Amino acid sequence: MNILLTGYAGFIGFHLASKLIKDSLIKNIYGVDNLDSYYDVNLKKSRIKELQKIDTNNKLKKFTFDLKNSKKLNQTFKNIKIDVVINLAAQAGVRYSFTNPRSYINSNIIGFFNILELMKTKKISKLIFASTSSSYGSQSITPYRENLMNNTPLQLYAATKISNEVMAHAYSHLYGFNSIGLRFFTVYGPYGRPDMAIYKFTDSIYKNKKIDLYDSGKMLRDCTYVDDIVEGIVRTLNIKSFSLKKKCNIYNIGFGKPVTVKAILNQIELNTGKKALVKILPKHTSEMNKTYCSTLKFNNDFNFKPKVKINDGLKNFNDWYKSYHLK
Ligand SMILES: NC(=O)c1ccc[n+]([C@@H]2O[C@H](COP(=O)([O-])OP(=O)(O)OC[C@H]3O[C@@H](n4cnc5c(N)ncnc54)[C@H](O)[C@@H]3O)[C@@H](O)[C@H]2O)c1
What we know:
11 helices, two-stranded parallel sheet, Rossmann fold
């Protein structure tokens, strides 16, 4: 199988690429990433180095360009056979969208549209793409099930991801390819994203920096270890299209047990052996009170539920942080 994987140098893309490199059914992985500077580019380069170490058969072909460049995208893959596209590239993050909204439109709307056009012109049969738990917005019925209305996003980031889901539906309906959108719930783990709470808390504690804790840490987050997310993506990759009832599907992938941000911070304090310096701030209007994943639909269709418990995952993260930053 030949795969086009966008965002391969990103957090989840890197972990997925590591797994696919070792998978004997995968022949080539065409990785695209623009190595943007949303967070430390050196972390992306370190991930690429790790991939090079394990890629002894040269399965991963790397391309550095922006998905909004449709000409480059089409020319690059003109004569390359692709069986599945996995689109993880996106402008992620919530707060960044207040100051850089255009970046979300460029990557998540125009970039995603270019991927859909590529699906159409090259007659690629399957698209798997990243959506988000943020798409549930102000929805208050929990756990979040995929059939809940999701037209009340609280930030532009979520609005662009909901747009991806409906754009994919239209293209899948018109041009007949299978499309699977995956709503990930707060992903964490080694080589994670420095803009996300678990990384930020750990980093600030080790560096004796103050942590901004919103709403006294009362918000609830359903945190999912990256290996479980990768396993979920691989299940969707391997499923035969006829075993799914619809051509276009949306699934949650999340652990299914929310914890308070304060509890996460307390556990990080235990792992680091240090007390956090905390500055309490009011809750921002863009923040959801709670994210809580229903795991039923994914488990029904793919016979898989995330397994890694938060305290085990946080310990792995802390071990990685120490080996990467403090050696
Ligand atoms: N990490 C999470 O908790 C989480 C939760 C829900 C959804 N998601 C989604 O999962 C996907 C992967 O997230 P991640 O945490 O690995 O983020 P990430 O930022 O680490 O990875 C995204 C990668 O895509 C690249 N990229 C961004 N825009 C691009 C463009 N226009 N052209 C080419 N490359 C581009 C970036 O350089 C980056 O390496 C994203 O779509 C994100 O929105 C992540």
